[in-house]
Design brief:
The N and C termini lie close together (7 Å). The protein is mainly alpha-helical and 313 residues long. 32% of the residues are buried. The protein is built from 14 helices and no strands. The chain folds into two domains: 2-73, no CATH class; 94-275, MetI-like (MetI-like fold, Orthogonal Bundle), CATH 1.10.3720.10. Helices cover 75% and strands 0% of the residues.
């Protein structure tokens, strides 16, 4: 297990290197000029020349990449050319917001999708199975922005139970923090629950037809013990993979949902950076997102061994 862990960790740096090359290179193909956008409406040539010199925009592409990577190695992701703040500070400020939203969404997704998937597999080709499948299709078919607006109209405008937008830090007030995140988390978790349900159902159907499950039933074990103890643990492997990927996608920025509920997370940060040609912010956020995906996949691999002892070798 230790050898496996070290081998996976050794892949982190090459992966991040290729991601950084692709992101930095493709970003230079975007139309427009950052210095011209920053110079304002007057676009004074002297100001534009100063900005290009300050942010090394006149340097060749390999030189600019080397300067950026050199800073990243030292923990410096650059400075936002729009709001004049270090990208590292912006990431540390926005990441906890999106991470909390993503974690709450995953909890909701698992709470809905996992039981529904198990029920659909156990009651295969029955009314319960069809109802769960229809619910899954509903969750994937409804656009996030529409569901978000609908929840705001019901719970905020008509009933006045929850705040319509904004974010309150848990350090300030835990109840208000949950109140501001519960609707956007449900919007994201609802879509993820549909995928969880379908993957859980497929995996459970395959496992329930295995020989060791029939043997467990032949021994006289209860249905609940057969399903939850023997079948579910082996069916969790694809669910773990899906959960890790879903969490990574949410960390990369639930752009639409964060915009609807005015959540100051990664999604809003990356959208503002792209529209304002804030290259340093875009590069820093994408690099952190890539690192998060790598670590989440590593965590999923380690979780496999915890769920299935046969994989520990």
């Amino acid at each position: 297990m230790t050898t496996f862990l070290l081998r996976r960790l050794a892949l982190v740096l090459p992966t991040l290197f290729f991601v950084s090359v692709i992101v930095f290179g493709l970003q230079q193909l975007l139309p427009g000029d950052a210095a011209t956008a920053l110079a304002g409406e007057e676009r004074d040539p002297a100001v534009i020349a100063f900005l290009r010199q300050k942010y090394h925009l006149e340097e060749p592409l390999p030189v600019r990449y080397a300067l950026w990577v050199g800073g990243v190695v030292k923990g410096d992701l650059g400075e936002s050319i729009r709001i004049k703040r270090p990208v590292r500070d912006l990431v540390l400020e926005k990441l906890p917001v999106t991470a909390e939203l993503a974690a709450l969404a995953i909890v909701i997704s698992l709470s809905i999708g996992l039981p529904m998937g198990i029920l659909a597999a156990v009651k295969s080709n029955t009314a319960a199975d069809y109802a769960a499948t229809m619910t899954a299709l509903w969750g994937r078919s409804i656009p996030n922005f529409w569901l978000g607006i609908l929840l705001i109209l019901l719970f905020s405008v008509q009933w006045g139970l929850l705040p319509a937008s904004g974010f309150v830090s848990p350090a300030e007030s835990v109840p208000r923090n949950i109140a501001t995140l519960i609707m956007p988390a449900f919007v994201l978790g609802n879509a993820g629950a549909a995928l969880m349900m379908r993957h859980t159902r497929s995996a459970m159907l395959e496992v329930l037809s295995a020989d060791y499950v029939r043997t467990a039933r032949a021994k006289g074990l209860s249905q609940a013990r057969v399903v939850l103890h023997h079948a579910l643990r082996n069916a969790l492997l694809p669910v773990i993979t899906l959960g890790a990927l879903e969490f990574g996608e949410l960390l990369s920025g639930a752009v639409v949902t964060e915009q609807v509920f005015t959540i100051p997370g990664f999604g809003k940060l990356i959208v503002d950076a792209v529209f304002n040609r804030d290259y340093a912010v875009v590069q820093g956020v994408v690099l952190c997102t890539a690192l998060a995906f790598i670590l989440l996949n590593l965590a999923a691999d380690l979780a496999y061994a915890l769920v299935n002892p046969r994989l520990r070798a």
